[in-house]
Amino acid sequence: MAKTATQLVDEVIAREGGYSNHPADRGGPTNWGITEQVARAYGYKGDMRQLPRATAVEIYLKRYWTSPGFDKVAARDPALAAEMFDAGVNMGPAQAAKFVQRSLNLLNNEAKHYPDIAVDGGFGPLSLSSLDSYQQRRGRDEGGRALLWLARAFRTGRYADIAEANGSQEVFLYGWIARQVREGV
């Protein structure tokens, strides 16, 4: 059964826990998985140790679900939307959208099934139209799994790129990959 946005947010918050300020975390101080920079962008001015859980939920739903249009993806493919949400929380919604846009372009049979789309990180009407065309051509079951698999492969590759580019991030690599294997995201 498909998870709701609220369930996805609850899972992230449970995984992220409360306040953290790991010296190697490029996001700096976080609470409930929300970085200080993101909290400030959404108007929170207090100490990050005191960030209310309800504020974190509101930020997750706005920044990582509705604003990037992942709610519209969920109406078409809940598993893909869940992947985009989770990747978006970890590395930004635009990056998550790019993984799917790249995947849609590579799975369109050299633009014979539907036109290529810009890999710009904005999952708007053209990207949704491509997803619709992809599903009509390839189906929601096996086709959906193939699309999800490729998007996850791009995500996994991005984690490796991050760790290779900055050795201090290797401390997080195993956890990023193991969680994908364990939880299927």
Structure description:
- With 185 residues, the protein is mainly α.
- The protein folds into two domains: 1-67, Up-down Bundle (Chitosanase, subunit A, domain 1), CATH 1.20.141; 69-185, no CATH class.
- Helices cover 63% and strands 2% of the residues.
- The chain is built from nine helices and two strands; from the N terminus they run αββαααααααα.
- A two-stranded antiparallel ribbon has the order 1-2.
- α5 crosses α6 (93-106) and α5 runs parallel beside α8 (142-165).
- The protein is globular.
- The model has no long low-confidence stretch (mean pLDDT 94).
Strand content: under 5%
Secondary structure: helix percent: 55-70%
Q: Low-confidence spans: pLDDT under 50, at least 5 residues?
A: none
**Separate helix tally:** 9
From the helix content, strand content and strand pairing, which structural class follows? mainly alpha
The total count of strands amounts to 2
Radius of gyration: 17 Å
How many structural domains in the coordinates? 2
Order of helices and strands: HEEHHHHHHHH
What's the end-to-end separation, in Å?
15 Å
Strand count, sense and barrel status of the largest sheet are: 2 strands, antiparallel
